[in-house]
Amino acid sequence: MKVEFAPLNIPLARRLQTAAVLQWVLSFLLLAQVCVGIIVILIIHNYWFLYIPYFTWLYFDWRTPEQGGRRFDWIRNWTVWRYFKDYFPIHLIKTQGLDPSRNYIFGFHPHGILVVGAFGNFCTNYSEFKELFPGFTAYLHVLPFWFRCPLFREYLMTCGPVSVSKKSVSYVLSRQGGGNISVIVLGGAEESLDAHPGKFTLFIRQRKGFIKIALTHGAYLVPVFSFGENELFKQINNPEGSWLRTVQEKLQKITGFTLPLFHARGIFQYNFGLMPYRKPINTVVGRPIPVHQTPHPTREQIEELHQTYMEELRKLFEEHKGKKKKNKRKRTGKGEAEL
């Protein structure tokens, strides 16, 4: 195979974009392990004056990811995030206005490999979010696992992510005055195993917990479809029933997360590496679905609202898929729907 190297005369802006995405990918893959390693080194060398105060503070701060987190605009305003956004580039598209006196749940689809669109649009101040939805604060809910990693949890929270636990979502949606948005990547780690270029496989049929919590708090539901999310990486073939898929699914059941074996381009060449391809990501925010607050929803009410959400999500996909041709496939079993 002939290796295609990047030309030497690439503009500085594009080089900075590549560097911005590289640091994000490495942070996603390695920073948690590095932070745990730092704590281990401090303990081994008995730097008690550093780790004991931190663990003491951590004991009292443990619930912060379930109580709105601790974001810092200074970090969300880092110039690196502007280059990160422009690398793909990432765009947020609004189809209808939202009432700032209400709280909302954004159901984000698809998960993709690294959920790039969700991070770029809702965890930095360089997306169009503030201009399109003035008066709103978005909270991207991620796996609680990440907030159990010492030091890493502090960095993660500065950009805005919070836990995806029921308590965390309820905290956001119960805040008075409205203007709060819980962004939930509904397919989760399970969906990432089917993130392949050219198709969307959404694990949504059995995902009904967000419906119940929306009814409980009277939070309006909004489907969000991120076109281009599955085009950023290629994944080693892992069909249902293969040994690789079996191992990945067992890992997901044990730990709550799994990491697909993915690859894309390199830093200085375009044939192989962990850098995502430069593919545009267009994240489309759909029409809000009115939800009447029901403190104790019945199974029938949950099922009815779930069907409404599924239909609105399908409409959103059909209305906007023409911007870039996608493969459309029929629904399948096992709780997923392929688009």
Q: What would you say about this model in short?
A:
The chain is of the alpha/beta class. The protein has helices at residues 12-44, 48-61, 73-76, 79-87, 116-122, 129-132, 152-158, 166-173, 188-192, 209-217, 243-255, 299-320; strands at residues 90-94, 104-109, 137-142, 162-163, 180-185, 201-203, 220-227, 234-235, 262-263, 281-285, 336-338. The radius of gyration is 20 Å and the shape is globular.
Key words describing this protein structure:
11 strands, alpha/beta, globular, 14% strand, 339 residues, seven-stranded mixed beta sheet
Structure description:
The protein is of the alpha/beta class and 339 residues long. Helix content is 40%, strand content 14%. The strands form three sheets. It has a seven-stranded mixed sheet, with helices on both faces. It has a two-stranded antiparallel ribbon with strand order 6-11. Strand 3, helix 7 and strand 4 (162-163) form a beta-alpha-beta unit. Helix 1 packs across helix 4 (79-87).
What is the rounded Rg?
20 Å
Low-pLDDT segments, ≥5 res:
325-335
**pLDDT averaged over residues:** 92
Order of helices and strands: HHHHEEHHEHEHEHEHEEHEEHE
Strand content: 5-15%
Give the termini distance in whole angstroms. 33 Å
Q: What is the assembly state of the chains in this entry?
A: single chain
Morphology call: globular
Q: How much helix, percentage-wise, in residues? A: 25-40%
Structural class: alpha/beta
* Number of self-contained structural domains: 1
Query: Main sheet, how many strands, which sense, barrel?
Result: 7 strands, mixed
Secondary structure: number of strands: 11
Total helices: the number is 12
Main β-sheet, spatial strand arrangement: 1-10-7-2-5-3-4
